[in-house]
Amino acid sequence: MATTNSSQLSLFLILLAILSSGSLTISSHGFTVEEATVAELQLAFKQNQLTSRQLVEFYLGEISRLNPVLRGVIEVNPDALHLADKADRERNAKAPSSLLPGLHGIPVLVKDNIATKDNKMNTTAGSFALLGSIVPRNAFVVTKLINAGAIILGKASLSEWANFRGLAPNGWCARSEQGKNPYVLSADTCGSSSGSAISVAANMAAVTLGTETDGSILCPSSYNSVVGIKPTVGLTSRDGVIPITPKQDTVGPMCRTVADAVYVLDAIVGFDRNDEATREASKYIPRGGYKQFLKQCGLKRKRLGIVRNPFVVEGSEVAEVFEHHIQTMRQRGAIVVDNLTVANIDDILDASGSGELVTFVAEFKLSLNAYLKGLVSSPVRSLADVIAFNNKFSKSEKIKEYGQMLFEAAQATEGIDSGVQEAYSNLARLSKDGLEKLMRENKLDAVVTPGANFATVLAIGGFPGINVPAGYDSNGVPFGICFGGLKGTEPKLIEIAYGFEQATKIRKPPSFKP
Ligand SMILES: *[C@@H]1O[C@H](CO)[C@@H](O)[C@H](O)[C@H]1NC(C)=O
Ligand SMILES: *[C@@H]1O[C@H](CO)[C@@H](O)[C@H](O)[C@H]1NC(C)=O
């Protein structure tokens, strides 16, 4: 997909094409696909106002119109229309009620570090080093999506190697180059699941999957005004996901609404014998799934802990909006416990001092080497090969400019030594004295902070969090609000996030400001 297109004139022409978009109404019955939720799409299917083929054609059209600038999509599935026809045939053959309200016939983009085994799409984490590699099987979460009837529309771009290579800007990878924030093109996209956030925000897909190790779902969701669910580690299998560390990696939905994200979460959670962490975490999955927690009055009687320091910048635009949202939560029946602090918060947020980085580099070398060895065929078979590839065949000068210091630091590690063990203990202690104690002592259902900087507190404990769009600054750059809690508390977080979303309805489609 990536074509170099840097001249001012062509950029101008593309922007003109974006802004002068034609009618987005695609069927003769007047159904509008733009911003449609999964439930609305399913209803339109049922009422014969829409087919999956029309839906895929719509997204392919939007991708060819918008992606030359936004670069949120790295590859389109050459079989997408064929799969859409298959979904349409299945729908016509079955009683429609048996297909509601899940993902049947719904096009999904998955981040390019999540394996797809169809021998047409690549799985590369945005790097040329993995182009042409053959994965042994679909990632478990992809199999789950396919079993739910979803259409894999393509792969989303990302900060290369999920932001674990060097000093590249957020949203940049060698294969797709710089992803752009669809609200304000010059603004940060955050990362590393930048393409998933960009694409779903700009209606280039119905729903998307991202991955997070520390902030990679929550942060781009905040910056691109979408809902991101970062599940408890182990709730979603990491099998077939290009890894950073099994301690913290997790796969989650990035969507335009909480309900859409919950439909996706319901489809992808579950035990997988190829990911041991799912054995423990699958006990958290409620009977009947997560949909039952989409309650209009989800904020009622919830004890919400507001953690200001250091997340609220006094006097900022975000702080002002945040105060207003706290009032709304009170009005909707939440019990607000204000001005709490997480013990040792400065230590937690310092990835070098806490030991988090020490565990990342050691785990990354082991996990990536195992992933690469498991490939059916691949131009690179080890981290050392990837480093050599970047040094030698770099198709982009940017690779040299941005370096690969994290790769090099990882390559220099020698397994899980006493230093790494010590880091594990320190991180466990920080979580125990920090979020765990705070939640218990204040009997909280969730902690609430503006933006996504709370992600590290959640990351080091394997805890879940949800970002919901919360506002736009005076330049039009979006920001979110983060609800976080202890392991397995997705039901409560979903009630709170949905209650907040329904009370505020902040999200609006992007306006492509320069
Ligand atoms: C996957 O990569 C190969 C190059 O190895 C390329 O020819 C092919 O078009 C890519 N697939 C897609 C769907 O872009
Ligand atoms: C929060 O606590 C700090 C220190 O205890 C205090 O200075 C500040 O005014 C409090 N803020 C709010 C909004 O209560």
TrEMBL record:
InterPro entries: Amidase_dom (IPR023631), AS_sf (IPR036928). SUPFAM superfamilies: Amidase signature (AS) enzymes. Pfam families: Amidase. It comes from the Eukaryota. Keywords: Signal. Gene3D superfamilies: Amidase signature (AS) domain. Residues 1-25 form the signal peptide. Residues 55-454 form the Amidase domain. The keyword Transport does not apply. PANTHER family: AMIDASE, AMIDASE DOMAIN-CONTAINING PROTEIN. This is Amidase domain-containing protein. It comes from Acer yangbiense. The lineage of its organism: Eukaryota, Viridiplantae, Streptophyta, Embryophyta, Tracheophyta.
